[in-house]
Amino acid sequence: MKSQQKCIVIFALVCCFAVLVALIFSAVDIWGEDEDGITEENCESSCRAVLVENIPEDVPFADNSTSHLPLSQGLYNLLDQALRVVEIVSPLWLLNSSDYESSFQPAARQGRALLSRLQGLKDRKILLRIASGRPDSSELITLSKYAEVHYLNMTALTKGHLSSSFWVIDNKHFYIGSASMDWRSLATRKELGLVVYNCSCLALDLHKVFNLYWGLQYKDFIPTFWSKRLFALFNRDQPLELTLNSTKARAYVSTSPDILIPKDRSSDLEAISRVIMDARRFIYISITDYLPLFGMNSNRYWSRIDGFIREALLLRKVRVRLLISCWENTHPLTFNFIWSLRSLCMEQVNCSLEAKFFRPRELSNGNIQGINHNRFMVTDRAIYLGNLDWVGNEFSSNAGAGLVISQSDDEDDRNSTIVDQLRIAFERDWFSRHTHSLQANKIPICNKQRTNRLAPLKLPHHGNINDEKPAPIRKKEEGIITRHYTDKSQKNTHQDATGGLVIENYQERGQVKTSHHDNKKLHMNVNDQDSEGDTAGQTVESSGSREICNLPL
Ligand SMILES: *[C@@H]1O[C@H](CO)[C@@H](O)[C@H](O)[C@H]1NC(C)=O
Ligand SMILES: *[C@@H]1O[C@H](CO)[C@@H](O)[C@H](O)[C@H]1NC(C)=O
Ligand SMILES: *[C@@H]1O[C@H](CO)[C@@H](O)[C@H](O)[C@H]1NC(C)=O
Ligand SMILES: *[C@@H]1O[C@H](CO)[C@@H](O)[C@H](O)[C@H]1NC(C)=O
Ligand SMILES: *[C@@H]1O[C@H](CO)[C@@H](O)[C@H](O)[C@H]1NC(C)=O
Ligand SMILES: *[C@@H]1O[C@H](CO)[C@@H](O)[C@H](O)[C@H]1NC(C)=O
Ligand SMILES: *[C@@H]1O[C@H](CO)[C@@H](O)[C@H](O)[C@H]1NC(C)=O
Q1: Residues 301, 293 contacting (CB under 8 angstroms)
Q2: Domains, the chain, with CATH or none
Q3: Buried b vs exposed e over 44-72: b needs ≥16 C-beta within 10 Å?
Q4: What GO molecular function annotations does the UniProt record carry, in alphabetical order (predicted)?
Q5: C-alpha distances in angstroms, 138 versus 55, 95, 162, 280, 461?
Q6: Does residue 292 have a cis bond before it (omega within 30 degrees)?
Q7: Which residues contact 40 (CB under 8 A, 6 or more apart)?
């Protein structure tokens, strides 16, 4: 009798165990995916890297300034190298510019050209795989005749967006950078990225990130167990040792957000913190939005990156340069926070924070062309290229990927490494006539349209960077062009009488906030004084502070 009971108990336990194992494996094996024989052991790590940039035609730099391979050319080169499979993640798909856009902006045709190249892959018997967070994209619906498309429901997974932007070709070559599959990235926006050839070690690691997205198709929960195949090969503590254009380097891929990170991978914030911590002499940051708030519409302070910078600046005396974009979505408090960083250096020797904003060209009709959409950081020994803006919720809810490459800074070959090249690109932007120093006691108005919201909104415009559904330029019957805001700004928008979307009370809110934080000297100045040809040394300090020391580079 006793032994019978024992038997039943053991049998029940065995059953439970079997069910558990089955559950675990069902969770894991959804991710099954062959890596076609390339493994951590036999992958290539003598790579070639090429910086690619899109510089809009109307954002000219001096003729003798450095230029890099055009982004479209870099992407074409990658497609030419493809033999088997092209994998693409992009926050949005909007390559097919409308006839109107192409006639207005000839470079917009490059988007169409790239789209037809992608469609041509099918004839070359090359598989095109796309992971997207936008099931409503009409372009992807058309493209699905030529490609396998997997959709992620990021709302259900993280309440965020898929902001990752990279390509992986045959697990061998890859692209990562700020551009998305948007004609504006090939035409009117300033973008920067990196194309890396013959680098299966890193490509394989990025492919694992792609596979994670691929496997999350239509899931509305994040699995508790990740397949071993998704574990990172390299991270900030164990980077890949590689040669890049025959120079020694170390590299790894980072991702966000934390809940989408399987074992061993470093998060973007960990990568950023390490790159900042390792800097000895300088940190140059070029970013579209820099805001130590949890989100654009948030009142929560978010100090992670701001804290890293404060430490580097004040406690380690690393010189910091911040180049941020001044564009229609720039949060008015951005400049208050930057002033606060600047004033940290008061009365401190060898403490230097300089900030400039990249103000694109303003056309005679008051519209802005050529947003600096770059998202990178370069220090004396490393680079970080990412997909996310430096605002809290981007890191906590949006999916993004980053690449860190570090190289020892040899005095011998000062401008041959990728780190040097990126620094030179940053300096070109920094000293160009498109950037402006912050003026004492003045907050630049980056979005004049908002101040004057009853004026008809005119073309040409870049919508929100993550704006996909509506074409960025729309022609209405009467020929009036309306602009559309989505995503982050949607909460502030309402349909106005003329059918266009207009930001509601944005500037007003900004002003209220500003005066709230009070500072008698702070006032909004509509005629922000763009001092042309300003150089770094002239950056003005906030009242009461003294610029004591500028470290030589
Ligand atoms: C480019 O040319 C301008 C004037 O012709 C000169 O002032 C500047 O130093 C040059 N820049 C470089 C990097 O050679
Ligand atoms: C791109 O848009 C044009 C119309 O503007 C349309 O005729 C064409 O089919 C579209 N191409 C693709 C690939 O969607
Ligand atoms: C995504 O998930 C949200 C919340 O679970 C749901 O409301 C929405 O319908 C889903 N979207 C799609 C396209 O499945
Ligand atoms: C990649 O490697 C192949 C074969 O080793 C070589 O033929 C090719 O030129 C390399 N590509 C680049 C961009 O260096
Ligand atoms: C400031 O920097 C200079 C040059 O790097 C160095 O010689 C000097 O000792 C530094 N001063 C302090 C107080 O760190
Ligand atoms: C570095 O670039 C400058 C011009 O920007 C050039 O004159 C110099 O020869 C380059 N040095 C090396 C080592 O390539
Ligand atoms: C690396 O090599 C490629 C191909 O030879 C070249 O186009 C690229 O500019 C080089 N990159 C660097 C950082 O020197």
Answers
A1: yes
A2: 45-437 (3.30.870.10)
A3: bbebebbbbbbbbeebeeeeeeeebeebb
A4: catalytic activity
A5: 27, 11, 17, 48, 21
A6: no
A7: 201, 204, 233
Cα separation, 118 vs 143, in Å, equals: 9
**CA-to-CA distance for 397 and 408, rounded, in angstroms?**
34
Whether residue 219 has its Cβ less than 6 Å from ligand 3: no
Query: For 361-415, what is each residue's pLDDT tens digit?
Result: 766 666 667 789 999 999 999 999 999 999 999 999 999 999 999 997 665 666 6
Between CA 163 and CA 153 the distance in angstroms is 13
Tens of pLDDT, residues 464-520: 444 443 333 333 333 333 333 333 333 333 333 333 222 222 333 333 333 333 333
Q: Is 416 in the pocket of ligand 6 (CB under 6 A)?
A: yes
Residue range 154-205, pLDDT digits in tens:
999 999 999 999 999 999 999 999 999 999 999 989 999 999 999 999 999 9
Helix, strand or coil, per DSSP, at residue 306? helix
In sequence order, what are the residues at sequence separation of 6 or more whose Cβ sits closer than 8 angstroms to the Cβ of residue 301? 292, 293, 294
pLDDT, mean over the chain: 79
DSSP assigned state of 80? H
Higher confidence at residue 354 or residue 66?
A: 354
Give, for 86, the enclosing helix (H) or strand (E).
strand 85-89
Residue of 412, 414, 415, 421 with the most ligand 6 atoms within 8 Å of its CB, for mutation: 415
Ligand 5, atom 2, lies closest to the CA of 350
Q: pTM here?
A: 0.79
More confident residue, 314 or 408: 314
Which residue, by CA, sits nearest to atom 8 of ligand 5?
A: 350
The ligand 7 atom at the shortest distance from the C-alpha of residue 418 is 13
For 62-88, what is the mean pLDDT? Answer: 92
Instruction: Give the per-residue pLDDT at 24.
Output: 55
Candidate from 350, 351, 548 with most ligand 5 atoms within 8 A of CB, to mutate: 350
User: What percent of the chain is modeled with pLDDT above 70?
Assistant: 73
Indicate the top mutation candidate among 64, 430, 432 to test ligand 1's pocket, ranked by most ligand atoms within 8 A of CB. 64
State the alpha helices, DSSP H only, in 311-417. Answer: 334-343, 392-397
